[in-house]
Design brief:
alpha/beta, 8-stranded mixed sheet, elongated
């Protein structure tokens, strides 16, 4: 299975590194000549195409990772085939906007995050296509959605990923300000978030019950959560999610 990449920016860069980590052969991956393409080809042995048409001609699967406003133009007037799949990682760009310009190829939407580099991306996809499973499984966990509306809402998680990074940084900086070694504070904050995620992901108890089991009356967890609630963190967080979803929806 040959993979082509149109738009080799930061996200595609991390995906490519994740694919190499998973053992995919660089000679089976063809990159467009813009962005990080030439550098990635030199460093890792990927094939470098002369243009986007050459990428499509050489590939079975094509990853599109350009700016959303450039998506339709990037896939237009290329030699698409019926046996190909176009995987769009362009946030807020519905399949209908790409189906015509990329016909007769099949169009799916994916939203990986930069943890792809570590093989740790929870990647959402709509609609699921069996041909792309090996690619998605190589960069993390695949999560298929039933409708495009669900996919749009789930895309907000890509922004939440960034907000979690900010919370980790804030926690680490606070720990360092209280005398912890900065490197230790960073690892402690990061691994604490990893541990919290694993507990919620791997245990079957209701999420509220897991949290309640940590909140001893009068204890530190309960006291801290009460302060956060007083500061309005929950409405602010949900408001940020709604803001992102509105931004994604206005791109249609």
């Amino acid at each position: 299975m040959k993979l082509g990449v149109i738009g080799v920016g930061h996200l595609a860069d991390t995906i490519l590194r994740g694919l190499l980590r998973a053992g995919l052969r660089p000679e089976d991956i063809c990159l467009s000549p813009r962005g990080h393409g030439p550098q990635m080809a030199r460093e890792h042995g990927f094939l470098l195409a002369d243009d986007n048409a050459a990428v499509v001609a050489a590939s079975d699967l094509v990853l599109l990772a350009v700016r959303p406003g450039d998506a339709e133009e990037a896939v237009s007037d290329l030699p698409w085939r019926e046996d190909q799949v176009l995987m769009s990682a362009c946030a807020g760009v519905p399949t209908a906007r790409l189906a015509g310009p990329s016909a007769p190829a099949r169009v799916v939407r994916i939203m990986p995050i930069t943890a792809s580099e570590l093989g740790a991306s929870p990647t959402i996809v709509y609609p699921m296509d069996p041909a792309i499973s090996p690619f998605l499984d190589a960069i993390g966990t695949t999560m298929a959605l039933d409708t495009e509306e669900q996919f749009e809402a789930a895309t907000v998680s890509a922004a939440i990923y960034g907000w979690a990074q900010d919370l980790i940084r804030t926690s680490a900086e606070w720990g360092a300000s209280r005398g912890l070694d900065p490197a230790l504070a960073r690892q402690l904050a990061a691994q604490t978030f990893v541990a919290a995620g694993r507990i919620q992901s791997e245990q079957e108890a209701p999420m509220g019950d897991i949290l309640a089991s940590l909140c001893t009356p009068g204890g530190i967890t309960a006291a801290g959560l009460e302060r956060l609630e007083q500061e309005g963190i929950h409405p602010a967080w949900k408001g940020a999610c709604e803001l992102v979803l509105d931004m994604l929806s206005t791109k249609k």
